[in-house]
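Technical note accompanying the year-one report. For the benefit of new consortium partners, we illustrate the data format agreed upon in the data management plan: each record pairs a sequence with a structure-token string. No post-processing was applied to the example shown here.
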Amino acid sequence: MKLLADENFPKKSYHILEELGYDIIHIGNTNPSIDDESVMQIAIDSQRLILTFDSDYGTLVFQYGYKPIGVIYFKTRFSLPDFPAQIVHKYLQSNELDFIGFVTVIEKEDSIRQRLIIS
């Protein structure tokens, strides 16, 4: 699965996922300071799952009709910058959740909710 880390996604988590072999790009490396709509379009064009701490992506999907393959929104900051990578890796490896076609909200490791992206 291809991933796109928003500029606010911790670099440490980005590097961990990259080292684990994920096809991941970080907006802070490739297109720093672009707006959310541009990030969304990159994700759509390249069929990448968005990893973000920005709630605006839900608004772009549900109010403005953007259709990415999926969004993982981390609702709260975690104390350790590697924690988001641990969560993403855990769920992608376990196949417990399907992230394709959903906006997934992660508040903490055991508090996850999903909303279907209607096509």
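Partners are asked to follow this layout when depositing records. The first strand starts at residue 2 and ends at 5.
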